[in-house]
């Protein structure tokens, strides 16, 4: 049986702890994302959604609690373990694509693989396969400035999957797109996520998109509850 893609247990996070202006963002947040499961995350602005995703993605440290990525505990191993888990186990997508403008779509997807030790030919082949799955087989050599917003975000999605992560974390991945483009990009994302069997936690303000996921969580006073 596959290990869960993500387990959060008792996650606590406060800013300015112990001071009069302390802000408690997460208060015992807990969740379990299974391999092959797509879970939506709904939260109003300022509720801690991005903080939760940063902690789950090992970009930020929780004050307390446990995080496991595909069965591997993130605590106790120091920065080297967290870096390895981020590189090998987690893919990230943000509202803005952050593609490297001087490189082609193929190169943007191949570079993370090469940084992880993959050979150039194999990295380019995987890039071509991923980009083809989201309908960009004719745009492989185009730079970001030559692509539409929806195409750029599909490249960013393929880049997130380049190193075959176990967990995908996405923060408003279609929030910068018009409704029709958002729907097409999201459909392509869902198809590939389900084909590859990774777990995904996708934050969105779009309730219609959230309802297309397997289930939805929301942040309520620092805890994760079923929406």
TrEMBL record:
Q: Which InterPro entries match?
A: AAA+_ATPase, ABC_transporter-like_ATP-bd, ABC_transporter-like_CS, ABC_transpr_LolD-like, MacB-like_ATP-bd, P-loop_NTPase
Coiled-coil regions listed in the entry:
none
Give the keywords, sorted: ATP-binding, Nucleotide-binding, Transport
Matches recorded under CDD domains? ABC_MJ0796_LolCDE_FtsE
Q: Which GO terms describe its molecular function?
A: ATP binding; ATP hydrolysis activity; transmembrane transporter activity
Under the heading Gene3D superfamilies, the entry gives:
P-loop containing nucleotide triphosphate hydrolases (3.40.50.300)
| GO biological process, alphabetically ordered | lipoprotein localization to outer membrane; protein localization to outer membrane
Q: Which domain of life is it from?
A: Bacteria
Instruction: List cellular component terms (GO).
Output: plasma membrane
Family annotation (Pfam families): ABC_tran (PF00005)
Tell me its family: Belongs to the ABC transporter superfamily.
Protein name according to UniProt: ATP-binding cassette domain-containing protein
Q: Which organism is it from?
A: Halovulum marinum
């Amino acid at each position: 049986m596959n290990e869960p893609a993500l387990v959060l247990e008792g996650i606590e996070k406060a800013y300015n702890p112990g001071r009069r202006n302390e802000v408690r963002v997460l208060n015992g947040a807990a969740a379990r994302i299974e391999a092959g499961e797509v879970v939506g995350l709904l939260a109003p602005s300022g509720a801690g959604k991005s903080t939760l995703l940063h902690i789950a993605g090992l970009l930020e440290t929780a004050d307390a609690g446990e995080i496991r990525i595909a069965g591997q505990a993130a605590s106790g191993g120091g920065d080297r373990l967290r870096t390895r888990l981020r590189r090998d186990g987690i893919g990230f997508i943000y509202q803005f694509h952050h593609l490297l403008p001087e490189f082609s779509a193929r190169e943007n997807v191949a570079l993370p693989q090469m940084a992880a030790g993959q050979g150039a030919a194999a990295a380019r082949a995987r890039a071509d396969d991923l980009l083809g799955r989201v309908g960009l087989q004719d745009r492989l050599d185009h730079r970001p400035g030559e692509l539409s917003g929806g195409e750029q975000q599909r490249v960013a999605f393929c880049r997130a999957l380049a190193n075959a992560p176990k967990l995908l974390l996405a923060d408003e991945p279609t929030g910068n797109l018009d409704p029709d483009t958002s729907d097409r990009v999201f459909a392509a994302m869902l198809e590939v996520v389900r084909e590859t069997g990774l777990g995904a936690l996708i934050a969105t303000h779009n309730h219609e998109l959230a309802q297309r996921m397997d289930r939805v969580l929301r942040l309520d006073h620092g805890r994760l509850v079923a929406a």
